[in-house]
Amino acid sequence: MSTPKAVEGQPRRADAVRNRRLALEAAKTLLARPGTTLKVETIARQAGLGAATVVRAFGTKDALIDAAVTDLLGPLLRRAQEALAEDDPGAALRGFLLELINFQAAHWIMSEQLEGLQVPLTTLRRAELRNTLHDLISRAQDAGAIRADLHPAVTTVLLGEAAYAIARSNESSPELAAGFVTVMMDGLRPQPSAPHAP
Amino acid sequence: MSTPKAVEGQPRRADAVRNRRLALEAAKTLLARPGTTLKVETIARQAGLGAATVVRAFGTKDALIDAAVTDLLGPLLRRAQEALAEDDPGAALRGFLLELINFQAAHWIMSEQLEGLQVPLTTLRRAELRNTLHDLISRAQDAGAIRADLHPAVTTVLLGEAAYAIARSNESSPELAAGFVTVMMDGLRPQPSAPHAP
Amino acid sequence: MSTPKAVEGQPRRADAVRNRRLALEAAKTLLARPGTTLKVETIARQAGLGAATVVRAFGTKDALIDAAVTDLLGPLLRRAQEALAEDDPGAALRGFLLELINFQAAHWIMSEQLEGLQVPLTTLRRAELRNTLHDLISRAQDAGAIRADLHPAVTTVLLGEAAYAIARSNESSPELAAGFVTVMMDGLRPQPSAPHAP
Amino acid sequence: MSTPKAVEGQPRRADAVRNRRLALEAAKTLLARPGTTLKVETIARQAGLGAATVVRAFGTKDALIDAAVTDLLGPLLRRAQEALAEDDPGAALRGFLLELINFQAAHWIMSEQLEGLQVPLTTLRRAELRNTLHDLISRAQDAGAIRADLHPAVTTVLLGEAAYAIARSNESSPELAAGFVTVMMDGLRPQPSAPHAP
DNA sequence: AATGAATGAGGGTTCATTCAT
DNA sequence: GATGAATGAACCCTCATTCAT
């Protein structure tokens, strides 16, 4: 036959790949835009495609969302892993926190928007992200860069959730992000006196 | 009031008032319960009423949710206002933060669940809450109880959003809440040296 | 309250019962009419109801079809059971065969139209029907009314399937039905000589 | 022919003919396999072709199915015509009945699966088959091989439909087929006494 | 006035057909 | 000419709102 046949494996036809990317980008764009309802029709229009096409490209709406969010979280996870390799544990944590906020501020991925959807990949990647943040924190504690009177797990949740919230805030701004990191890092610094009584 | 078919100024029928309260309580209960879908039918069943009754009592589903959330935020707002009258500005802020977290942890009002709904009263009351928190922070800064190198607006958002996130976290616990307040207050304490360079 | 409240149990509101019946009748009518596609919309229109209503009345389209077919098979099953109680086993079988054909000729329930649908009640009732026919045949064989050189199970399938087909035939008529029963009963009569060599 | 872009009377390209055959074989195979859904995609995969190719080869899905079923019925029709030429009318009828059952049992062509499809050729060929069976029966009646107190048309439908049903039965087996033919031929034998009163 | 039921708009998904490679 | 992908129509189902009891 005269079919190009391509290399055996994943790579499908050029336009299929292109449209898959278009759908993915559209989903990511809409995930970044606050207040969107994430209907298949909306994503399709954003991508300049038909509704059935985006479903076909991923099999199901959930799978598309899953892929989009996972995709968005990818670079962030990579940055977290790079931070783990940096020399100064305290500076690494501080630096990553800023990235975390800035990234999420630019993307607006709402946990709640995913409620009721089947997004196994996203769940997985979130766990990875959380684990890496946990490691970053533990390393900073071991190095004496941050206080040790809090359990690493507590600190992980605290930083993760708070950073997430700050990023998503309507008033999000570089100034806010910087303020958050400053306060957090100051608050996490080894304290001279005993902590305040609860 | 503009209630149809009712004599002006005349109190509504006793059972109408009672049903309105039942619906409101049901909505509040479901808002407190994580993972609920907030369908009219669900609320009605929880209230022991018919679906039509619930809608009729508020005219629309959105109005009911609006009233319920506003209602839930009421005591919190009152507490914030009481904190403003306390003597020690720092302690008042710290105390309110804990209340804020505990309250939200117990009520699970998700901003995102309200996305796409018309909830003007809720928006209003949230602004009031935010303003009062802003005042609490300004007062603490004026009294030298917390650092002044951050704009009060920034600090307001920071505390409000972060507290909200901590409360909503799946791993939410008293230990986490206490840790959050400790770190925040330590971080917000007037700092001896210059803040970390950005 | 002044709610009628009715008797505790199944009986719901009068119109609900009425509409449930309308939907059921509509489905039965369409099952009787050859060449129909059995769309929810079609059934609803036939019933003079909205599409959502007929779904709500049964929870799902499949459940509606299931109920309709089961309903149609009910009287037939009852007749088979009555035939079992008759005195003359041969006449009972012959009589039931005629009923089987006439009934099915009037209803046009196609196994294949149900393909891919979840109809557990129908499956059950069909098995009952088949079992009762099996008993009718066994009894006739035991009484010497029909030949015994065929396994009852074979005869059951033979009569059941053939009667079914005759009933569904486009040229279906009383004459055809009578002819079928005559031939079958004659063919099933105990044969004087050995059966034809295959 | 009206094939577009082809010189009149010119044979089509070799691979086009080959693909048409592949599609036809695939459809026939799937028609023989019970419980298949007969989607274009499924047929194409079975043929090792693309979906568009299958459609293009026949213009429409219905045309493909029509051709496939017609093709399947071809040999059966030829066998019926050969039976007409045999010496013993009774044996010819009996022989053909067995073939009819075996053939259909092996092919699983469901009338109902064709419901809603435009299959004019199939309809035509079915009529031919029915007519030939009618002739077989008339000839057997004329020869005194089978009873004459039934109208040939009635007997035709009776045998045709019943044989079809027996073939399609889930419990289909050689034993069942043989039993059917035995009973039918015994029942059709010229009867000594008057037929049973209806 | 209260309510169970009816409904119409809208969602996701499938599939025969058409298009572009 | 063959084909994988695109698509729009159609289907079943959900739910906030309206109706009739």
Name a few traits of the molecule:
Tetracycline Repressor, domain 2; 2 domains; homotetramer; DNA-binding; disordered C terminus; 0% strand; 8 helices; Arc Repressor Mutant, subunit A; 198 residues; mainly alpha; elongated
Layout of helices and strands, plus pairs?
The structure is a homotetramer of 198-residue chains.
Chain A: H1 14-32, H2 40-47, H3 51-58, H4 61-84, H5 89-105, H6 120-142, H7 152-168, H8 174-188
Helix pairs in contact in A: 1-2, 1-3, 1-4, 2-3, 3-4, 4-5, 4-6, 5-6, 5-7, 5-8, 6-7, 7-8
The structure holds a DNA duplex (21 and 21 nucleotides).
Give a structural overview.
The structure is a homotetramer of 198-residue chains. The first copy, chain A, is mainly alpha-helical and 198 residues long. The first copy, chain A, folds into two domains: 13-59, Orthogonal Bundle (Arc Repressor Mutant, subunit A), CATH 1.10.10; 61-188, Tetracycline Repressor, domain 2, CATH 1.10.357.10. Helices cover 66% and strands 0% of the residues of chain A. Chain A has helices at residues 14-32, 40-47, 51-58, 61-84, 89-105, 120-142, 152-168, 174-188. In chain A, helix 1 packs across helix 4 (61-84). The radius of gyration of chain A is 20 Å and the shape is elongated. Chains in contact: A-B, C-D. The structure holds a DNA duplex (21 and 21 nucleotides).
